[in-house]
Amino acid sequence: MASSDRITDAEKGNALLDRTEYPVETVPKTIALVERDAAVDVEEVDPKNKYLAWAYRLEHMLGFEARGIHRVSEEEQTKKTTLGFLRIVMMWFSINAAAQNITLGSIGSSVFGLGFVDATLCSVFGAIAGTIPVAFTAGWGPLSGNRTMVCARFTMGWWPVKLCVILNLVILIGYSMIDAVVAGQILSAVSNNGSLTVQVGIVITAVLTFIVTTFGIKIFHHYERYAWIPQGIVLLLLAGAAGTKFDTASAATVEGTTLVANRLSFFSVCFSAAITYSPGAADFLVYCDPKIASRWTVFGATMVGLSSSFTLTFVIGTGLSSGLLSNPTWEAAGAGSGALIVAGLDSLGGFGKFCSVIISLGLIANMVAPIYSAGIDFQILGKWPAMVPRFLWNTLAVVIFTVCALAGRNNLSEIFTNFLALMGYWVVLWIAITLEEQFIFRRRMKPTFVWSDWDKQEKLPIGLAAFAAFCVGWAGAVLCMSQAYFIGPIAKLVGEYGADMGNYVGFLWRAWFILL
User: How far apart are CA 481 and CA 446, in angstroms?
Assistant: First the structure.
């Protein structure tokens, strides 16, 4: 699993060569003419464990992506493996133009009591605000050749980053669980009298996700390159078929300070839905040439792809929710469920059911990305996890989210409102220290980061200060969080149900403490 790590480090200005490889100037022509596949042609360890040895042979025989957390050197970032601006836009749009965002948008009315205009503005602008950190971290992929949580070693430190990885695994697997439940609900609602159960629908999407993620980055990019086409067409058909029944004049069912608090809380939920892409955003772009996929190119493409897909799906979701009271079929389906999407396509008859199936299968694009990242993040936990091939960790992640989806399929709205906001807290804290580390503490260092030190513990920070600041930020987030299971004392001061200010107060406390 270990990469040869032959690096021409532009930041250091010298060549770092593995002892097992030839210097660049002395490479025999017979070797130089062989085109390497950076995803497959990596130096493998010789494990003593017979099961790991078998796994490596299987990985090589079937052509799975063998590279896990190991850095992609500048020589391996080629034009052939690079995504241009439009490809990156399409990748993010495919990943995010998914049904779970429609169901998330629909809870603005049902859970937070907001009208159409309030719910739409809060959801769209919350998502756009949350997309900015995603676009920032996505640029690390081509720049460093490292996966996102490997880059976090340079800011959080060698040991604290493991806590971030565990929290990120909860996000990645949790999102896939939500997607699987929504897909199962849609497939069940489409079948005659629910003959295909939600459980079967969950298993179907899990198996398809497993197939794509197991083969790795090549299949991933090919799939995401085209997945947006049927998904985008069907979402536009849904908007057209259901749009005439949207009640755009619907009013909020709460008022005063409670209305203000609920606006902020729903904004925070949608903000969290977007920002939680940040800890995995660079994972999909490490093979890109930074001279082509520059940081600004990646930033702009990520903003366009995610903002446009969030806007489309959230507007549809808030619109469907606004029409519940005037449409008995929609009301019976209920907000925050995949069945509401099927009800929105009901006017199209049999073709509407076909469109619903396309939407449910479109969720696979949203499941592939987090499960792919999960397979890599497991390897960051330690020396022994790093020896386990990526595809085995992917398999474990699929098993976990499938079991969790089967168990929690009847509580989707509660999972949305509690899980998303809670997971957003730690990402905001990590983003705070990352921004300070790059733009304050290291702004005069040349180079800012020596990315080739990604696996050298002695050259990376221990992370005691970062961990202490992380804990302080969590304290601020807890005091200002507003969730079904706990409302912080500061959050209680606003409205009847409290206002979720955990993301913003946690960010400020974290940023302030580390400057002391």
Answer: 40
Would you say 76 and 42 are in contact if contact means Cβ atoms under 8 Å apart? Answer: no
Report the distance separating Cα 339 and Cα 28, nearest Å.
62
- Residue written as token pair 């493409």: 301
List Cβ neighbours of 334 (8 Å cut-off, separation of 6 or more).
Answer: 110, 324, 340
What token pair was written down for 411?
A: 């509580």
Measure CA of the first residue to CA of the last residue in the chain; give whole Å. Answer: 41
The type of residue at 234 is: V
Return the ∠ at Cα 391 (arms to 275 and 176), rounded to 5°.
Answer: 35
Q: What is d(CA 294, CA 80) in angstroms, rounded to the nearest whole number?
A: 16
CA distance 357 to 242: 17
Cα–Cα distance measured from residue 461 to residue 440, given in angstroms and rounded to the nearest whole number: 16
For residue 487, the 8-state DSSP code is: B
Q: Kindly give, in sequence order, each residue whose CB lies less than 8 Å from that of residue 211, ignoring residues fewer than 6 positions away.
A: none
Total residue count of the chain as it appears in this document: 516
C-beta of residue 103 within 8 angstroms of C-beta of residue 340:
yes
Tokens 């794509």, located at residue:
212
User: How far apart, in whole angstroms, are the C-alpha atoms of residue 90 and residue 449?
Assistant: 30
Mean pLDDT in order along the chain per 10 residues (516 residues) = 38 36 40 52 63 81 83 88 92 92 91 93 96 95 94 92 93 88 86 81 92 85 87 94 91 91 93 93 93 94 97 95 88 81 89 91 90 93 89 93 86 63 83 88 74 90 90 92 85 89 90 77
Are 95 and 224 spatial neighbours (Cβ–Cβ below 8 Å)?
yes
> Which residues are registered as beta bridge partners of 14?
9
Distance (Å, whole) CA 248 – CA 134: 31
The DSSP-derived string for 37-91 is: -TTT--PPP--SSHHHHHHHHHHHHHT-----SSPPPGGG--STT---HHHHHHH
Q: What distances in angstroms separate CA 239 from CA 243, 316, 348, 355, one per listed residue?
A: 5, 6, 12, 12
Tokens of 16: 């770092």
Alpha carbon of residue 30 to chain centroid: 42
Comparing CA positions, the residue from 247, 256, 272 lying closest to residue 120 is 247
Between the alpha carbon of residue 474 and those of residues 218, 290, 423, the distances in Å are 38, 35, 11
Instruction: State the pTM of this model.
Output: 0.86
Element (H, E) at 8: strand 7-9
Using left for φ > 0, alpha for ψ between -120 and 50, and beta otherwise, residue 90 falls in alpha
Upstream peptide bond of 370 is cis (omega within 30 degrees of 0): no
3-state helix, strand, coil in the chain (%, to 5): 70, 0, 30
Do the beta carbons of residue 39 and residue 218 sit within 8 Å? Answer: yes
CA 273 to chain centre: 9
Angle at 226 between CA 59 and CA 228, to 5 degrees: 120
